[in-house]
Amino acid sequence: MHDITIIGAGVAGLFAAYDLSLRGLTLRILDRNGPPAAHGCSWWAGGMLAPYCEGVTADPLITRLGAESADAWAQVTQVTRRGTLVIALDRDRAELLRFARRAGPHDPLDASALTALEPDLATHRQGLFFPSEAHLNPRRALADLVAALQARDIHIEQATAEPDDITGPVIDARGMASPLPDLRGVRGEMAVLHAPDITLSRPVRLLHPRHPLYIVPRGNGIFMLGATQIESGARHPITARAMLELLSAAYALDTRFAESRVLETGADLRPAFPDNIPRVTVRGRVLRLNGLFRHGYLMAPALARQAADYLTHQTRGELIHED
Amino acid sequence: MRDFYGVMLDSPLMLGTAQYPSPSVMQQAFAASGASVATVSLRRESGQGQAFGQMVRDLGIHILPNTAGCHNAREAITTAQMAREVFETNWIKLEVIGHADTLQPDPFGLLDAAETLSADGFDVFPYTTEDQVLAQRLIDAGCRVLMPWGAPIGSGMGLNNRYGLRTLRAAFPDIPMVIDAGLGLPSHAADALEMGFDAVLLNSAVTQAGDPVAMARAFGLAVQAGTLATQADPMGVRDMGAPSTPLIGKAWL
Q1: Is residue B49 pLDDT above 60, yes or no?
Q2: In this complex, is the C-beta atom of A231 within 8 Å of any C-beta atom belonging to chain B?
Q3: pLDDT per position as a tens digit, A142-177
Q4: Which of A7, A101, A166, A316 is least crowded, fewest Cβ atoms below 10 Å from its Cβ?
Q5: Are strands A184-194 and A261-272 parallel, antiparallel or unpaired?
């Protein structure tokens, strides 16, 4: 007999499992597709732990709770703490000024400071640096979470289950598969490029009035380009339009991306609530962790912590919604 | 007050539904603005679930689907037909973009699409420039509303060509006109209504503000001010100064 059953082995379910296991609870993890892979949206994430950049458009709660994510992840996986760089093309300078006005703690960079940080961006003349932000490699982070759980003899069972079939407390972290009435999918598309000539040591955000882009270095000349954000529940592969937009923005950042090889493209849905803030929806013995939107890795630790605090101490954090 | 294909609007404010930080903020912004029409882009909001489309319907106000992002008549016509199915309205804001940077309309594609769609029973709201000849052609094509731009979409510059807009307004006194695109501040919206335009349509001015809900409210107040001012018959402009207090009999102190 286990203390808690977790359904869904994406970033939310696995981090909750990890947090609860550290508190000495016994767990069972079920996922209809088995261990994390391309079937889950956690697989397609950028892995930026950027509470201040996100705070320009997200609710202040995301910035506050997201600020704890880098330390939390560093216990499980490799977290690169080299900040975030934000730049804009010369003609979009107004975007940079607006971003600077609204963003959290950062340093404005002139051309020489920018070049000192990222020599490959020497063609750009100004930017913003968010020194306290970080990033991780999502697929490695998922694998490291799985390994950390295995070390505690917790294994992911491939099985379909509904909370009603299970006795005892249940954490439902199935993302779009959870029956939550307010949940919607927000489509995102990404590409992975191999550009061995280009070196970037931190995520770079290129502001643009129509096609904002971020590039997350994965090491060894591999870069993740993301991401579109479309109010649509469609799961088809990346569209030609999205590819054009992502690649054009990458080309504008550094023309050498034209010669890069497209290793992979992906598209999936981000589960989101109307306020785009994640929730622990509590109904009886079932806790549904969902709605991480574009903040899966940024918010999973806080969401897991609040769910665990609720289960162990009945603490009602900001993300707890009692049904 | 002029009607829009038989519909009298409660408020001369039309608000877009794209680019809000979240659907909740969108809902709050609409409530704060008192907008009577919500524009929605079909191009990218298609797909299973239609959750976002339902949120727009749930605003409970008139829906004006648009053909944003279409670059030729054929694309725009197809999008309009899809929009009619999805949102069950004959209203369509017809956008045929002619230039990728300025997003200015392609007048030729616009006219083509307006003719086809009007003949097909659509109530066409064409996004156009202040060009008077094009306006006449669009009216000849069956359009009973015009949507001249204030400035390029998303530029926030306000009313760029006041002379052209004033001339357009005067040339077609019976045609309802909406200033669409380019507004950045509530004063721009009041300005448009004071010039005799019937409504304004905006999106970025609200969504790109630091506090979209507060800015939506500001626009709601501005269109009220503009409407009231127009009804109050403004004094007009004079070349000479005219003292508001008579000089004769004024005490010498």
Answers
A1: no
A2: yes
A3: 999 999 999 999 999 999 999 988 999 999 999 999
A4: A101
A5: antiparallel
Give the alpha-carbon dihedral of B37, B41, B47, B52, to 10 degrees.
-40
Provide the shortest C-alpha distance from residue B19 to chain A (in Å).
10
Label the pairing between strands A222-226 and A184-194.
Answer: antiparallel
Q: Report DSSP state, residue A258.
A: G
* Cβ(B125)–Cβ(B145) below 8 Å: yes
What pLDDT does residue B42 have? 78
Q: Describe the crossing of helices A138-151 and A11-22 by its angle, rounded to 10 degrees.
A: 40
User: Interface pTM (ipTM) of the complex?
Assistant: 0.83
Report whether A109 contacts A124 (CB < 8 A).
Answer: no
- pLDDT 10s digits, A252-299: 999 999 999 999 999 999 999 999 999 999 999 999 999 999 999 999
Does residue A58 sit at the B interface (CB-CB below 8 Å)?
yes
DSSP state at residue B228:
H
| CA triple B75-B182-B38, angle to 5 deg | 65
pLDDT tops 80 at residue B47? no
Closest residue, chain B, to A242 (C-alpha): B44
Is B24 in contact with A235 (Cβ distance < 8 A)?
A: no
* Pair of tokens at residue B180: 């669409």
- Cβ <8 Å between A232 and B46: yes
Set B93, B137, B144, B217: catalytic member: B93
- Mind listing the domains of chain A with CATH numbers? 4-47+137-181+276-322 (3.50.50.60), 84-131+184-272 (3.30.9.10)
Residues of chain A with C-beta less than 8 angstroms from the C-beta of B50: 233
- Measure Cα distances from B62 to A168, B11, B18 in Å: 48, 11, 16
pLDDT of residue B41: 87
Q: Is B250 annotated as catalytic?
A: no
The shortest CB-CB distance from B154 to any of A98, A209, A274 is to A209
User: Tokens for B47?
Assistant: 């797909």
Which range among A61-70, B65-74, B174-183 shows the weakest confidence by mean pLDDT? Answer: B65-74
Would you state the pLDDT for residue B252? Answer: 60
Residue closest to B197 by CA, chosen among B156, B141, B158: B158
Q: Give tens-digit pLDDT for A67-83.
A: 999 999 999 999 999 99
> What six digits make up the tokens of A146?
């799985």
Average pLDDT, chain A: 94
Residues of B in contact with A209 (CB under 8 A): 154
State the Cα–Cα distance between residues B212 and A32, nearest whole angstrom: 41
Q: What is the pLDDT at residue B245?
A: 66
* Cβ atoms < 10 Å from Cβ of B45: 23
pLDDT digits (tens, 9 = 90+) for B26-42: 999 999 999 999 999 87
The Cα-based distances of B33 to A296, B15, B52 in angstroms read: 33, 9, 20
Nearest to B148 by CA among B162, A81, B76, B140: B162
Task: Kindly determine whether residue A276 and residue B45, on different chains, have CB atoms separated by under 8 Å.
Answer: no
Half-sphere exposure in the Cβ direction for B43 (13 Å, CA): 18
pLDDT beyond 90 at B76: yes
CA atoms B211, B128, B50, B14: torsion sign: positive
